[in-house]
Design goal:
disordered N terminus, alpha/beta, TIM Barrel, about 375 residues, 3-stranded parallel β-sheet, single chain, globular
Length: about 375
């Protein structure tokens, strides 16, 4: 064999070993694919609806401004809102004191586009006499522009979203009564996070079909230790009901469908029993869009009690995925491009549209929100 032919043969061998199809053969070996790397793409040739803007104006009742810190970032957020049809957003700051004041100043350039809700001040919650100072701080935040309270968060050990933490004190605790009463007086609603989805409590094993979200947001051992007795899923549902029963005059939004997307009949029972209860659909598109017939029937039955939310600081693509689920009958699509966000709406489940009627969309997108927020915020 001539040197030229030998060199050609060597180069061909190198090319063959480096070809994509050779690499693909390795990658598709079941033993080599990691679940965390699984990012399926639908190969079905089925209708795809390209939603650029919501069909009707939207009030997003559940966002967070944690990663927005400059006027330029606020401007960018408004641009996304304009592009996708978001009329207004509620920013759940979970803040009080100087932090709330700084956020109120940051968003003040767009008073008609952003409404800020504050948090409760738990300072001294474990000492006698707790309450009056926290009420005064709530009133002060109201004077600074707060028009609601939230997101209050309790995943089993106590309220900890608003700082300082209140380990061992849950939303149904009598120590909070005067704060809830003041919310009634000020005519401001509360957004409360009770527990978490069932996948977060289950074992992280081959039988957990929400394994990736369960792994990311799971109730791990650190949540079960420290101050306060850890309350499991069933106990948190009881706390939700106790809170509703204890405070019938407060408008309470149980965010994320009350974290009962695995059992919508359960949250339906609470909606039937407590007229002061609403739910938001934020960060629960994947969990509901995987059961489209059952979930859409829930929307139709409780169309007057569901408000729209996204969670975090939504991008245009995140908004459009939410609109696609609510407005279309598209089937078997993914939103895995958002998996790296702290609160993904994609996870690993294929999603399907609900095809909700216009009257329902108007209510979920905007009209129900107008029943909740203060009239001077409209």
């Amino acid at each position: 064999m001539s040197s030229v032919r030998l060199l050609t043969a060597i180069l061909c061998l190198i090319w063959f070993q480096s070809c994509d199809f050779h690499k693909q053969e390795d990658v598709t070996s079941p033993e080599s694919i990691l679940l965390k790397d699984f990012k399926p793409v639908s190969l079905f040739r089925i209708p795809v609806t390209n939603i650029q803007k919501a069909r009707f104006p939207v009030i997003d009742m559940h966002t967070h401004g944690d990663y927005v810190s400059t006027p330029e970032e606020v401007d960018q957020w408004v641009k996304v809102m304009d592009e996708t049809g978001i009329e207004k957003v509620i920013v759940l700051t979970e803040a009080h004191g100087a932090k709330f004041d700084s956020l109120a100043d940051l968003y003040s350039a767009y008073p008609d586009r952003f409404e800020l809700w504050c948090g409760f001040d738990y300072t001294g919650y474990n000492k006698s006499g707790y309450g009056p100072d926290a009420v005064r701080e709530l009133v002060r935040c109201f004077g600074k522009g707060a028009r609601g309270v939230g997101e209050l968060g309790d995943k089993g050990r106590g309220l900890y979203y608003c700082k300082p933490e209140a380990w061992g004190m849950h939303p149904d605790d009598p120590r909070l009564d005067m704060l809830f009463d003041k919310c009634v007086e000020l005519e401001i609603p509360l957004n409360i996070h009770f527990g978490d989805d069932i996948w977060m409590y289950e074992n992280k094993d081959i039988y957990n079909d929400g394994l990736m979200s369960g792994w990311t947001f799971g109730i791990d051992s650190s949540m079960r230790e420290g101050m306060g007795r850890f309350i499991v899923k069933e106990g948190m549902i009881s706390i939700m009901e106790n809170t509703l029963k204890r405070h019938p005059e407060n408008i309470i939004i149980a965010c994320h469908f009350g974290n009962l997307t695995n059992d919508l009949d359960r949250i339906a029972g609470l909606l039937d029993k407590y007229p002061n209860l609403y739910v938001d659909n934020s960060a629960k598109y994947a969990e509901t869009a995987t059961i489209p017939r059952f979930a859409s029937s829930f929307y139709r039955k409780y169309q007057d009690r569901i408000v729209f939310g996204t969670d975090w600081v939504p991008t245009a693509d995140m908004n459009r995925i939410a609109f696609r689920i609510l407005e279309t009958l598209d089937e078997h699509f993914y939103a895995l491009g958002y998996f790296n966000l702290p609160l993904s709406i994609g996870y690993h489940w294929p999603m399907n549209g609900f095809g909700l009627e216009n009257d329902i969309l108007r209510k979920v997108y905007r009209e129900n929100a107008l029943k909740i927020i203060r009239q001077d915020s409209n």
